[in-house]
C-alpha cells in the first residue's frame, strides 16, 4: 500500500506492507497537507495482527480528526484512545510552512531523521517505551527547517544502514523510495515509512 500527498510546500510518499502471513498490518500512518501545514504520523501497534491494527488505527483516526490541533494535544489524545487496548508506539511530525518550523513528538521505536541542504541533520531521540492509555509525560520539540529539507519517518520493520546518507545522497523522493525497495522484502515485521521533502 502506498500514498502520496503534495502541494507547493511539500511532497511526501508513504509505503506500508504487513508482516508475512498476516492479513492486517499492525502499523498505521497518516499524511495530510493543507496550505498552512503538513502533518505526518506513524503508529506501530504492539505485536502484529488484529489487536496491533486496532491500536495503531485508533491513533490514526484521532489524529485525522484533530489534525489542525498542535502536536502536544495530538500526542495526548493518541495516548487516551489506547485505554483498554494493547498499546502502541507513535511519532507525530507537523511542519508549519509560514514559519519554516516543525514540531515533533514520539514514544517508542519509530525513527525520524531530517536532512537540510546546508548539511545539518535533526534526529530527535525518542522517549523509550510505548503508550497504553496510562498517564505519562511526553517530550515535544520544535525545530526550524530549510526549504529543500528531506525527511524519513519509519517503523522498526524497516532496517536501513546509513539512513543519514540515504537522505543526503539521493536527490528526489522517488530516488529514496527506490533505494529503500530492497529493504522492504524480508517482511519479518509490519513495515511503514514516509519520505518527504519540504519546499
From TrEMBL:
<feature type="domain" description="PPM-type phosphatase">
    <location>
        <begin position="11"/>
        <end position="198"/>
    </location>
</feature>
<dbReference type="Pfam" id="PF07228">
    <property type="entry name" value="SpoIIE"/>
</dbReference>
<protein>
    <submittedName>
        <fullName>Phosphoserine phosphatase</fullName>
    </submittedName>
</protein>
<dbReference type="InterPro" id="IPR001932">
    <property type="entry name" value="PPM-type_phosphatase-like_dom"/>
</dbReference>
<dbReference type="InterPro" id="IPR039248">
    <property type="entry name" value="Ptase_RsbX"/>
</dbReference>
<dbReference type="InterPro" id="IPR036457">
    <property type="entry name" value="PPM-type-like_dom_sf"/>
</dbReference>
Amino acid at each position: 500500500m502506498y500514498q502520496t500527498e503534495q502541494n507547493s510546500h511539500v511532497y511526501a510518499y508513504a509505503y506500508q506492507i504487513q508482516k508475512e502471513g498476516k492479513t492486517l498490518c499492525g502499523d498505521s500512518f497518516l499524511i495530510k497537507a493543507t496550505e498552512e501545514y503538513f502533518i505526518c504520523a506513524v503508529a506501530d501497534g504492539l505485536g502484529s495482527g488484529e489487536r496491533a491494527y486496532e491500536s495503531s488505527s485508533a491513533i490514526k483516526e484521532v489524529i485525522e480528526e484533530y489534525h489542525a490541533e498542535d502536536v502536544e494535544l495530538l500526542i495526548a489524545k493518541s495516548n487516551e484512545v489506547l485505554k483498554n487496548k494493547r498499546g502502541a508506539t507513535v511519532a507525530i511530525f507537523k511542519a508549519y510552512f509560514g514559519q519554516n518550523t516543525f514540531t515533533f513528538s514520539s514514544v517508542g521505536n519509530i525513527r525520524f531523521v531530517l536532512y537540510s541542504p546546508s548539511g545539518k541533520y535533526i534526529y530527535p531521540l525518542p522517549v523509550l517505551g510505548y503508550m497504553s492509555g496510562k498517564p505519562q509525560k511526553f517530550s515535544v520539540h520544535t525545530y526550524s527547517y530549510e526549504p529543500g529539507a528531506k525527511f524519513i519517518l519509519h517503523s522498526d520493520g524497516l532496517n536501513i544502514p546509513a539512513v543519514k546518507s540515504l537522505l543526503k545522497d539521493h536527490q528526489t523522493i522517488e530516488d529514496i523510495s527506490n533505494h529503500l525497495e530492497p529493504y522492504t522484502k524480508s517482511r519479518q515485521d509490519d513495515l511503514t515509512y514516509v519520505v518527504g521533502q519540504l519546499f
